[in-house]
Amino acid sequence: MSLVFSYQLPVVPCLRLRFTLIAEQNATLYTFKGSMLRGAFGHALRKTVCVMGPEQPCPTCMLRKQCAYPRLFETLIEPDESAPRFLRGLPTAPRPYVFEPFDNRIHYTAGDPLQFDLILIGQAIDFFPYAIFAVSQMAESGLSAKRFRFRLQDVKWEAKRKPASMRVRSEKSPVTSEQTIESEWRLLYDGGAKRLLEAPTPQLPTIPPAITSHLPLLTCNFLTPTRLKFGDDLTMDFTFRMLVFKMLRRVLELAHFHVPGAEINWGFHPLLVAADDIKIVSRDLEWVDWERRSNRQNVEMKMGGFVGSLTLEGNFEQYAELLAACEVLHVGKACVFGNGKIRCSREEPLDKATLPHETES
User: Fold this and answer.
1) How does the average pLDDT of the chain come out, rounded?
2) Would you give the DSSP letter of residue 128?
3) Which residue from 50, 242, 297, 357 could staple onto 238, CB 3.0 to 4.6 Å apart?
4) CATH architecture of residue range(s) 14-360
5) Stretch 227-239: mean pLDDT, rounded?
């Protein structure tokens, strides 16, 4: 019989922005663009807001607490004795943003659109105008090592999430109806006029009805390379309890560092124990590799992870908020690039994602 443990997850507000860039020339980019976008964004943001110059390191800068760059892109940790032991001693906090590149095209002709989402988390939401301007600047400067020029056409924001019907299969019924979540998008920034049109409202994670369904089987799809590290090793061989721990750590760290006043319950061990009652009845995971170049370290870094699906069986009621939060916040290492994107459903498992093996710059 499943153990029931009442645990309140902290609220982590998010703002999802959808950028549309237009190619100004023919361009060839990588299939998975997370590393490219994040690197170009960081360079453009620092160039935009830093008044001290490129030779000034952020950790010793007297303006670091007021500057948008370290607060958004390279978040530093100030001494904090209230943090749990496993968070103390970290040089930087988890970054309060996630790039979600969902455009897998490689070749672009002048006039073609390139779209991606940028999710701002907690306090980083206040800096959304800086983020928009930085993306505009990085597009004009050019993407990839060859500096293919784009322009920012517009930015939309996810204003509302609402239920929508979908058709799914189950063991008891070949085809049945289920509710999922559909987004409503509103225009936030007009790139032609270079004008903000309204003030966006942060959204809270919405629990998809698929997660709270009473059907016994739940499919957890890993849509982008997911890197779960236990000890010194990355692995695909984990239990639901181990996955819950990584999801909890992701949400609680973001709440601690980026949501002032968040009520965080660090006593989550009973929730991990209860997770032992959730069984993995099917595991269809595959490791895919991609590489990125770290300009700071001047080395090539492997950023591969697993994609595919897990089919789980059990009572998911007490994990509904956690699963919904990680559908937005991702899970595992290198989430800023778009790694660790998950989606839970009662559908048939998704086909494994096709991801590149090229080196990203």
Assistant:
1) 85
2) H
3) 242
4) 2-Layer Sandwich (3.30)
5) 91
